[in-house]
Amino acid sequence: MAPPKYTKHFIPLESDPLIFTQLIHALGASPALRFKDVLSLDEPSLFPNPALALILTFPTTADYEERRATEAASQKPQAGGHEDGDVLWFKQTINNACGLYAILHAAANGEGTRYIQPNSTLSKLLEECASLSSDERARYLEGSIEIEAAYRNAAEQGESEVSENPEDEVNFHYVCFTKDVKGKVIWELDGDKMGPVKRGEDMGSGEDMLGETGRRVIRERMREEGGGENVAFSLMALMVELEG
Question: What does the alpha-carbon distance between residue 82 and residue 189 come to, in Å, rounded to a whole number?
C-alpha cells in the first residue's frame, strides 16, 4: 500500500505536555484541562489523576510502516462519527500533524468534551463535524484557518531541532486512546489508520484511562511497537486540574 497522500504539510509538534496544553487551551479547552507526562505505569502515586485520555508517542520503524500497510489492506474504511454512538475520529490528511490529531481526538471524545468552552474553535469543530463523513471532516480540518494558526504558534515553541521544510518526514507518531461516549470502551484513535480501533471493553465503574484496563491497553500497544526494547516511547495524560 502506498503511504498516505497528504494534502497539506505542517512542522511537527514537540512531545512536550506544556506545548500540548498550550495548544488545547488555544483551541478552546477549559484552563482546567492539562496534559501531564505519565512517568510510570506501575506506580499509582505517580499517575496524573483523573486521566481522561492518553497520548502515546512511539518511533515509526520499518516494522510499524509494514504492519500499518497490512492492516489497511485488510480493513474497510470506517466513518468514525458520533452518529455511530461511539467516537469522533479524524482521518489524517495533514503531514506531520499527528500531534494535532491526537489532541483533537482527546478533546472531542469521552469526558474531555465536558471541558470545551462555548463559542470556541473546539465547540465549533464538534458542532459542525459530528454529522460529517470522514472525508468531509478531513477537509474541514484542512480548511480551518483558526486551527492552523493555533497549531503553528504551538509548534514554533518547541526546543528540539526540526526541519524547516514541513514536507520532511519525522520518525515518531502520536496516537490517542480514549473512552467512547458511554465510558465503557477504550478506542485507539489514529488518523493514519482506516478508522477508530476498539482496544478495551467493560471498564469498571469510575475507572479512568490509567485504570487497569487503560494500562493494559497501553502495554499491549507498546509491545506491538517493540516497546520492550525501545526506550523512545512517551506517554501523556489529559487530566483535570481544578484549583484549590
Answer: 14
Taken in order 46, 236, 134, 225, is the CA torsion positive or negative? negative
82, 98, 105, 176: the catalytic one is 98
The CA-atom distances, in angstroms, between 28 and each of 8, 90, 134 are 23, 18, 22
Beta pairing, strands 8-9 & 94-95: parallel
What domains can you pick out in the chain, each with its CATH number?
Answer: 8-240 (3.40.532.10)
Q: Omega before 50 cis (within 30°)?
A: yes
Record the pTM.
Answer: 0.88
Mean pLDDT by 10 residues, the chain (244 residues): 68 93 97 95 88 91 65 61 72 94 96 94 95 93 96 86 56 90 88 90 84 93 71 88 64
Can you tell me the distance from the alpha carbon of 181 to that of 231, in angstroms, rounded to the nearest whole number? 33
Is 82 a catalytic site residue? Answer: no
Find the catalytic residue in 82, 105, 129, 173: 173
Amino acid at 5: K
Q: Which residues of 232-242 are buried (b: 16+ CB within 10 A; e: fewer)?
A: ebbbbbbbbee
Residue 98 falls in the annotated catalytic set: yes
Residue from 18, 131, 50, 32 nearest 84 by CA: 131
Each residue's pLDDT tens digit, 160-181: 655 555 555 667 899 999 998 7
Helix axes 145-155, 121-129, angle to 10 degrees: 130
What is the DSSP pairing of strand 33-37 with strand 94-95? Answer: unpaired
Smallest Cα–Cα separation from 162: which of 8, 4, 7, 13?
A: 13
